[in-house]
Amino acid sequence: MNNHEIDYKIYGDDMQFVEVELDPKETVIAEAGSLMMMEDGIEMETVFGDGSSNQGSGLMGKLLGAGKRVLTGESLFMTTFTNEGQEKKHVSFASPYPGKIIPMDLSALNGKVICQKDAFLAAAKGVSVGIELQRKLGVGFFGGEGFIMQKLEGDGMAFVHAGGTIHEKTLAPGEVLRIDTGCLVAMTRDVHYNIEMVKGVKTALFGGEGLFLATLRGPGTVWVQSLPFSRLASRVFASMPATGKGKDESGIGGLFNMFSDND
Fold it and tell me: Does residue 262 form part of some domain?
């Protein structure tokens, strides 16, 4: 791999952003829309896929690399930021929702990390952002993150983001950890990932935790988030007042409707 060696600093607590320091001619790649600010002398360029050498050569190779990103729900394009000046420059990227940014040195993680499909934020140029197909259908259908997850490969720095508080846990060989499927952020390449149905009909139907749990078996490292964005969004949506006529007029929704009706 020919990854650029970037320096960085993370600011903030619950609404974090990462500031990347670029030497002359160094480049960082990022998801479209994640830019917060950048200094003069940094040039932006939109590219298919991640712009890495793993993407393949020629138009078809680039289209294939970009098409893989569509399967994970991401944009066809990514943005590169290159320091075209003669001095060190800084560019910053922000998380899209409350949570933490996790810096990952892929060279210290055996060159590969598997993460949930919307976790990637930015990385040094040369890091490959691809897809990881789960071999078992049960994982794909009931895993909470779909049949496809992202994989980050290379030996440079990568940054992923997740909701709430992040807990990093190292699993010993054979050690098993069961977590809510949406709380899985990332794991190293040696962790075995499967889906387990909750035992007991009453627990599954009335326990409020869903029918399935993710079963992670070591060795390896796992990153877990306390507040998946899907859980946050569902709570916000459930609390939104009904404003249309003919809908539920009770509770807070009815109070909002009472003040909004003009006839």
Answer: no
Sequential DSSP letters for 28-60: EEEETT-EEEE-TTEEEEEEETT--GGG-SHHH
Give me the number of domains the chain comprises: 1
- Interacting residues of 25 by C-beta distance below 8 A, sequence separation 6+: 82, 83, 84
159, burial (CB in 10 Å: exposed 0-12, middle 13-18, buried 19+): buried
d(CA 249, CA 242): 7
Predicted structure pTM score: 0.77
Q: Answer yes or no: is 255 within a domain.
A: no
pLDDT in tens, 185-237: 999 999 998 877 776 545 444 444 456 788 899 999 999 999 887 777 777 77
Q: Could you tell me whether strands 220-225 and 166-171 are parallel, antiparallel, or unpaired per DSSP bridges? A: antiparallel
Beta-carbon neighbour count of residue 128 at 10 Å? 23
Identify the helix (H) or strand (E) that includes residue 91.
Answer: strand 89-94
User: DSSP secondary structure string, 210-223?
Assistant: -SEEEEEESSEEEE
